[in-house]
Amino acid sequence: MAVPMQGMSMPTQPCVLPQQQQGVNQQTQNIGMEKLDNIAKVKSLLWPLKESVANTMKVAAQNIYLNATVDAGLKTNDSSMPRFDKHLEEFYALCDQIELHLKTTLECCNITSCSQRYSPFLVSKTENIPIIADNLTYNQYLNTVRTQVGYAKEIHDALMMAARSITNSSD
């Protein structure tokens, strides 16, 4: 079910590409997008889902009809009734796959949004690329991340001290 990411950190999404990179990386990302795009996977699962709903309803109708004929005494109970539970399980499996892909897409968009909010500059992957005014080198990016982690730790420690002082004062 899952496709290996092949060296990419997250699936490419149309909503996650910055404006400056779209023209340069459009061709290379379209190739990877076919394999990794969760929205494309959802779209490919919609037709099987539609067929699964139709098959489930068809089997349900057949079972209702056969039960009605047995109840009316027109036919004896035979074991050739189609299995409704198997068709229903197939439908739920497809729904679960679609839900998983949609949740993954939403999480990717949320991560990208947070990344753009808290670190709005692009990160250059190598030192050989000429530095553009809005780009960070990888070392600058690492320093930014270390600083953010340090601030988060300080906030955590302050909250823990406040919680301890509240519990100590209530005793």
UniProtKB/TrEMBL annotation:
Note whether Ion transport occurs among the keywords: no
- Which InterPro entries does the entry link to? Mediator_Med29_met (IPR021018)
Mind naming one GO cellular-component term on file for this protein? mediator complex
A GO molecular function term, named singly, is: transcription coregulator activity
Tell me where on the tree of life, at the top rank, the source sits.
Eukaryota
**GO:BP terms for this protein?**
regulation of transcription by RNA polymerase II
Arranged from A to Z, the UniProt key words for this protein are: Activator, Nucleus, Transcription, Transcription regulation
Location(s), subcellular = Nucleus
Q: Which Pfam families match?
A: Med29 (PF11568)
- The primary site where this protein sits is nucleus
Family affiliation: Belongs to the Mediator complex subunit 29 family.
| PANTHER family noted in UniProt | MEDIATOR OF RNA POLYMERASE II TRANSCRIPTION SUBUNIT 29
Q: What is this protein called?
A: Mediator of RNA polymerase II transcription subunit 29
Q: Which organism is it from?
A: Strigamia maritima
